[in-house]
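Hi again,

Forgot to attach this to my earlier email, sorry! This is the prediction with (2R)-2,3-dihydroxypropanoic acid bound. I've pasted everything inline since the attachment limit keeps bouncing my files.
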Amino acid sequence: MARIFLTRIVDGEALDRLRAVHTVEVWTGDAPPTREELITGLGDAEGLLCMLSDRIDADVIAAAPRLRAIANYAVGTDNVDLDAALARGIAVGNTPNVLTDATADLAFALMLAAARHLPAAERSVRADEWGTWEATRWNGAEVHGATLGIVGFGRIGRAVARRAEGFSMNVLATRATPLAELLARSDFVSLHCPLTPETHHLIDAAALSRMKSSAILINTARGGIVDQQALGEALRKGTIGGAALDVTDPEPMRADDPLLNAPNLIVLPHIGSATHATRSRMTELAVANLLAALAGQPMPNAVV
Ligand code: DGY
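Structure tokens for the complex follow:
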């Protein structure tokens, strides 16, 4: 029986399967554990179930001498130092596939919301500003028939492309179209690549300057892919039409972040995979990864 530390309570019944075999300790604080709390909580744990918001770096790994298995509750693993884990022989797993559709749905929701000014229009009703049927005030961009540029054509990028077919969109993807051309031709640009040293600030001032002045940027991948200062300037100068972000850098974004003063911007608190069914499936995969690794088997969804 191993001790497993969970940094957050998660949805779904699969945890019971873990509890039946191992000692499971869940961090129950309102806020995620600080670095010190994470290190203390890990202590002699052999398994860790962590969130994308937990930075599992070399020092955290070094401070957990018995750690054998890390199950990241996300498909992205940029929050885990994979080299440090590999060097210690610690198995690391993620939760691919199960969140593809939920995340693609949210990318589409953001595209529609930004194109048709949904948040601002809804706020105007609550502010009692609905004076009359408006002939021009809320006119936005058409999604159907528009050109959608998909940066990163993996599982989620392809799922977004499938949805775009239903809207008769013309889809460009970085797999077949160079990024500079994709940015110049797209009415909507949706990001679906992982955050790596190569994709950090991939969408910088130069990239933004290639986009149409009417184009809308959607990011449901990782905040670090976009240079947020450059994005703020592009929105303020109107060199792009708008942006809708489910992810920011850093997370959480504070209410006084200067980017929030930029026009035509929607920001959500990283909810791409946040449906009951998807989060339960993510729990299933994370639990399966831990059970396997702690039994000396390969994780079903191993990253290293
Ligand atoms: C992931 O799994 O990487 C997603 O960002 C979670 O929503």
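The pocket of (2R)-2,3-dihydroxypropanoic acid is lined by residues 52, 74-76, 99, 272-273 (CB under 6 Å). The radius of gyration is 21 Å.

That should be everything now.

G.
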